[in-house]
Structures are given as structure tokens and as C-alpha cells.
């Protein structure tokens, strides 16, 4: 079992970010650093120990520049939402404190801790009541819940999914009703700071407008009069979110340092809003107009081979998303990635309006499916434009983005497999 989980978590997160950024070489990253003003040393000798978990980055400009560059690249290459520098610093701080504790025989304080009155004496085992209180918090606001993932990755707070706001705001009264205090004197102040941050965030969320009656299952920042005023409200909400996440993770890291925040200590709870992983599959399909109206979607492998009087043009590509889990989700955007090799990967986004009216956004209930379509000729024209610029489409895949920002991909399909269908589109 790894005795440095925080350091390994940071190293793994850096490796995953590098992969989502297109796996740039160390030489490429070093060149990016030299182009900064002033230049930043991002040499292989510095970065390799970070990515391999051998050493923990110092909290300085090289580390923040690295994550900023890789996050910008990952957003461009794979549309991976940014976590933001504060989240990366939190992970770095946890790894650094872990390293310090190991170097000093375990006496260094955990992130966010108040200096201990016990000094270097061996800490007693946590009180049973502290473990119970920690368990109640972690069941209400699980560290791996969708609520936390969305808040951490969201670039703005103009719209917040109800799955997120409900999880956060429902936790507040339950935590306020829990009048037991921690026996450990270092945990109680951290818990109170977390509650204060949660109250401030819920105040912002409760001031938003529920527009679920209009379709999207979200809260939306109201329009107070001017764009400037609305942007101010967004900044205010983002500040409350960032402060809450900071104190929340300080408390969770303290609990982890006491050995009462590991998964084995958190009893399983039934699936509910804001917790548990999403299980969404995405598939690219071919669509034919039916003689009596409507669109029939068929697997790509039979595209171009269909010959029936029941089918005709116009022709479509369809993206079907299926929810194989118990948690409902909103699909905000679907489209097709076009990989031309090298550095080029172009997305084709489906329109909000389909042949039968509004098709995006759409809600997927538990164990349900849904789809959106786009005129096949438009993708054909995209292929043609790429060819005119000297590129060659090599493969395509469907994708769907949830309202929370989470991205789901289908399997890559060789571009030549689409040509029979595209030939039908342009010849009929």
C-alpha cells in the first residue's frame, strides 16, 4: 500500500493532465517555459521527478506556470475543463505536508491544522465520536462526489446544475443540526470554518433563479440590470465557491491525517443526487429520413448499405447517449471529433434545433437513452474543407458533454468507414 497517497495523487493528476494535453515532450514544455515573460525553468530534470512522484514541486512560479500551460493545452486538445491553480495548490500543499510529516517522523501538522498543543508526543487514536461526526460530513458531501467535481472544474457560476446545488444546500441544515463537537481540539475550528464557507456558498446559490420549468435543470444568476452587475454576481459566487472548497479540503485533509477520512470509514449510502460516478455511453450513428416522417438511426457499420423505399434523404448523423446508471444527467452538447493526425483535432458541434424542433439540451433519466442529429452534408463539407487545406481526416468519434461539464467519448471510427454513407448523401 502506498504510504504517500497525497504525493502519488498529485503525480498521477499531473500525468493525466499531461496526457490530456496531448502528451507534449519535456523539450516542448521547456520551450513553453522559455517563452514566458520572464522565462520559467521547466527543464526535464525539474519536471520528471514531479511527474513520477519522486519529489513534490515547490509552491512557486514553475509549478503554477506548468499547470496553467497544460490546462490551457488540455482544454484545447481534449476540451478537459480546468481545475484552476487554487485546486492544484491544494493538492501540492497536501503532498508537501505529507512529505514534511514523513521527514519529521510524523510530527508536522496536516494542511490547515492549528499548531498542536501536544507537541511531538504521539497522538492518541481518534475518539469514536470524532469518527462518527466525520462520517456524517463525508456522507453528506463525499470528497469524490459530482458536486465537488463540478464546482472545482466550473469556470463560471452563471449556471449551476440542480444536482450540484441540491447536494450542497441540502447538506447545510443537516450539518448545522449536528450539535456534537469534535473531541480533537484541532478539528473543531476547521469544522466551523468549513460551515462558515458552506453558509456563504449556499447564500449565493439561494439567490439564483431556478429555471427548471423552462427545461434546463439548473440555477441561473439573475439579470440585475447590466452585464457588469451580472458579472459582479458571478465573481461573488466564484469567490464563495473557492473559499468553501479551500476550507472543505483543509478539514478533509485533517480528517485524513487522523485516519478517519479513508473510504473504508465511510459507510456506503444509496445512490443519490450529487454523489457516485456517471456511467454514460456515447455512439455515432447514421440517420435516414423515413417516408412517413421522422429519422431512423442505424449503426455506422451499415451506413451506405441501406436500400429501402422506406428511407430517403435528407440524411443525418446522430449521436446517441445512454445512461447506464441510477443518477439522472443533463446532456448539454453533442458533436463529433475529427482527428486529422498530428496537432489537429477539430470538433463539429450539433445544432440546438433538429428536424423535429429543439433537441439540445436534453435530460437523461436513470437507465435511459437520448439522441441528437445533424445534417450529414455538413460533416461532409467539413471533410472537404479539411482536404482543401491539405489535411486528411483519419478518424472520428462522437462525444457528449453533460451540463456539469463532464465529457464522454465514443469509440474512434476510421474516417473511411463513413465514406460510403457520405457518398450516398452527396449523390442522391
From TrEMBL:
Name of the protein in question: Uncharacterized protein
Protein species of origin: Streptomyces canus
Biased composition (Basic and acidic residues): 90-101
Regions of compositional bias (Low complexity) in chain numbering: 103-122
Positions of region (Disordered): 78-131
Amino acid at each position: 500500500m502506498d504510504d504517500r497517497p497525497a504525493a502519488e495523487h498529485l503525480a498521477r493528476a499531473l500525468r493525466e493532465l499531461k496526457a490530456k494535453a496531448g502528451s507534449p515532450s519535456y523539450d516542448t514544455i521547456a520551450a513553453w517555459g522559455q517563452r514566458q515573460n520572464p522565462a520559467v525553468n521547466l527543464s526535464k530534470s525539474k519536471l520528471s521527478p514531479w511527474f513520477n512522484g519522486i519529489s513534490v514541486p515547490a509552491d512557486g512560479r514553475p509549478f503554477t506556470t506548468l499547470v496553467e500551460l497544460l490546462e490551457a493545452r488540455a482544454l484545447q486538445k481534449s476540451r478537459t475543463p480546468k481545475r484552476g491553480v487554487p485546486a492544484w495548490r491544494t493538492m501540492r500543499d497536501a503532498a508537501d505536508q505529507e512529505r514534511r510529516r514523513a521527514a519529521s517522523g510524523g510530527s508536522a501538522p496536516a494542511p490547515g491544522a492549528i499548531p498542536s498543543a501536544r507537541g511531538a508526543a504521539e497522538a492518541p487514536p481518534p475518539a469514536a465520536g470524532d469518527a462518527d461526526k466525520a462520517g456524517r460530513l463525508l456522507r453528506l458531501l463525499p470528497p469524490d462526489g459530482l458536486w465537488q467535481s463540478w464546482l472545482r472544474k466550473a469556470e463560471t457560476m452563471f449556471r449551476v446544475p440542480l444536482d450540484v446545488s441540491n447536494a450542497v444546500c441540502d447538506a447545510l441544515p443537516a450539518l448545522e443540526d449536528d450539535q456534537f463537537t469534535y473531541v480533537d481540539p484541532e478539528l473543531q475550528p476547521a469544522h466551523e470554518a468549513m460551515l462558515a464557507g458552506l453558509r456563504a456558498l449556499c447564500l449565493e446559490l439561494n439567490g439564483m433563479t431556478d429555471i427548471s420549468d423552462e427545461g434546463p435543470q439548473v440555477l441561473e444568476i439573475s439579470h440585475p440590470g447590466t452585464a457588469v452587475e451580472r458579472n459582479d454576481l458571478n465573481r461573488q459566487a466564484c469567490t464563495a465557491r473557492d473559499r468553501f472548497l479551500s476550507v472543505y479540503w483543509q478539514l478533509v485533509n485533517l480528517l485524513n491525517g487522523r485516519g478517519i477520512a479513508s473510504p473504508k470509514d465511510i459507510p456506503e449510502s444509496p445512490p443519490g443526487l450529487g454523489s457516485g460516478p456517471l456511467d454514460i455511453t456515447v455512439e455515432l450513428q447514421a440517420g435516414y429520413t423515413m417516408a412517413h416522417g421522422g429519422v431512423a438511426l442505424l449503426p455506422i457499420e451499415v451506413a451506405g448499405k441501406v436500400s429501402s423505399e422506406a428511407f430517403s434523404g435528407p440524411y443525418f448523423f446522430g449521436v446517441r447517449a445512454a445512461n447506464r446508471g441510477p443518477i439522472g444527467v443533463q446532456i448539454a452538447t453533442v458533436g463529433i471529433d475529427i482527428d486529422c493526425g498530428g496537432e489537429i483535432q477539430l470538433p463539429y458541434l450539433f445544432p440546438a434545433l433538429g428536424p423535429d424542433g429543439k433537441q439540445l439540451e436534453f435530460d437523461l433519466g436513470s437507465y435511459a437513452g437520448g439522441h441528437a442529429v445533424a445534417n450529414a452534408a455538413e460533416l461532409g463539407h467539413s471533410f472537404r474543407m479539411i482536404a482543401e487545406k491539405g489535411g486528411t481526416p483519419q478518424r472520428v468519434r462522437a462525444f457528449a458533454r453533460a451540463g456539469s461539464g463532464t465529457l464522454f467519448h465514443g469509440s474512434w471510427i476510421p474516417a473511411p468507414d463513413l465514406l460510403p454513407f457520405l457518398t450516398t448523401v452527396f449523390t442522391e
